[in-house]
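Moderator note: this is an archived Q&A kept for reference. The question asked for a predicted structure of one protein chain; the sequence and the answer are reproduced below.
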Amino acid sequence: MKTRTLIILAGATAVVVAAAVVAVTGRESAVKRTTVEAKLFPGLIDRINDVRVIEVVPGDGTFRVTGEGETWTVPAKADFPARFDKVKEALIDVADLNTVEAKTDDAERLSALGLADPGSDKGAGMIVRLLGADDKPIAALVMGEAARQRGQDHYYVRREGENQSWLARGKLDIGKAPKDWIDSLLFKVPDDEVRRVVIRHDDGQTVELSRDTRDDKAFLLANMPEGAELTSPLTLDNLGRALSVMRFEDVTGVGSAPISGDPVAVTEFDTFGGRTYTVSLWRDTGAKPDDKGVLPPPVWARFQVAYDPAAAVAPAPDADKADKADAASDTDGDKAEAKADPAAEVAAIVARTKDWTFKLADYKAEQLSLRMDKLIKMPEPATGDAGAAPTGQAPDGAGGAAPEMPAANQ
């Protein structure tokens, strides 16, 4: 990997402001009215490339973001990749933090500014530590309440280990939980790319829908029982678009998820571009049925993605698109050419998903594990004209029982 240092990325924002004490008024008290403009951590911008750990103590535990260069992970989330832009932003924000006014240095009054030690009953702050190799301390602050002044971001802060508090100016968007440091977007599949969807349930039932071309707006449901109708074409369409934006709510290692046994549903998406996305779904081992005996959807998922160029279907020629392409600049043409590498894109998705199990939102999990009874409705049983039938006997024309929902569609 070609390393781009954070100091280069931060260079445009690094401005050294000389300290200037303007006035000291009044007697010594718990609140010092000293106006100051200086870096909270002088020289930190020059050491930003030495940081290997961002340690956050929000009050209910400690978590870390670790790495170097552009490669960072979140150990609390099974070493799932951290957002480099988030890491870069946090480091630069701490380095650029300027003190504006000295506040109390009375330990008893720090809670009023949200600067008491984490774990305190009230007014607790959040510790942010920047550590180097071998956990060597580089900088550490306690972050308190935000204070909006003069239209800029202002925070109450203090250096860890010191009681002196400060009103500081700058941006401090520090994630308070491990999930705040990761990107929940796994991948996107364009709506017109999905050709066929098959859901295979663990009891043998299969749901299948497909369309012939990219231009087909509607999916067709296979193996509909005689007389059945769709509950809503929109439900079918939404299933076909289920991968248009694939996000997760939580992530853990493959062996750490609260699941067991075989998946309760496996959903496969085939695309016109030759890619296949397979989503295996499990219920949480702690899942319990509701008061109607209905189990919650299987929310834990694993993904497999493959690419077969031989299965790809070329898009139909489009005169309008061709004219626009001819009129596009060379730069636009270069961009279009640069982004078309399906094998590389699939490899990136595989690397991002293969070692983890993901928790999906309930609505997404339910969408990916739909059953036939959610997609179709059967006709009401016919009733005879002669009124109620004798006890134990079906009415004329009723056929004895309502049509059964197929257990499986082959």
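Archived answer notes: Residues 189 and 293 are 35 Å apart (CA to CA).
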